[in-house]
Amino acid sequence: MPIHVHTLGDSTLDNLYWRLGETPSLTDAKSTSVEGRLKSILGRGFEVISHAFDGFTTRSILNGSNIGTVLPRDRIAFPSYIAEKAPKERFIKPLEALQKEVSKDSNAYHYVVLSVAGNDFRENLLNPIRFVKDISSIQKRYLQIVEKIKSLKGRNIRPLLMLQYRTDAKNDLYRIYTVLKIIGVAALVMQIGCFALLTAPIWVTIGKISALVGGLVFAGGALGLYLNKRLLPLLALKDILIGKKISMLFMDTLLQSFYRPILQQAKKDKIPILDLSNTFNPYKDLYDHGIEPGKQGAELIAEGIAH
Question: What is the domain partition of the chain in residue ranges?
Fold first, then answer.
């Protein structure tokens, strides 16, 4: 009885289009993609079934979406990608397709590798306020997907959550780090301002402001720091002074903040985690076009899943 490994998510699992951009051969592109390398590493006795599609968001996974809507319409890679991923129907509901595959062999082991949410953030890149504001909504949808995977009708459903990696720091085509820097600088200025407000008791002591005003100012500073720590850790200034880039610091904080409730639920449900945020080095040649897994990146992801 074969063991089925299902991929569910976005281009961190389905990087076929970008591999086609490196080689016109569909066979070569598939063999160096994440799913292709996973098939090769797992070998006989395993079947890798793709429910992952480039550009898909948490909404796409929950409600369905058209395949290939975010991809460039070139004359070589795009037609080959669509022919491979959507030979009959461009609109797909991944969770329904996943359930159909599970139902074909419901007594077998079905591992479901979930990697999604990067595109949810990509859609908000040009709106930094919405970028931060929507985090809780994306978390909620992500956890809904996990619950739907757990409730699939099959005897041996085994979810595996693959966490998002840091994108390419050397080739920031989508200006991700530029946006993160803007948000990070704003958060840092707010943090410094809040620390300044915490000095209110000193001004009360020397008679510059009243005790009432001092108390209100101090409370405002404390509240501001509490809210701000979701964006930047309290010791961010120290990290910046010792040379850490504020964009990378904010990226780390964003990943930690986003995945915190997800990791808590995974621990409760005993769901294994593949933490690519600590596996991918953003300064190494692991990427295609700044955000997609390249040949070496695909190898790294496939090895992590197989492990």
Answer: 3-175+257-306, 181-240
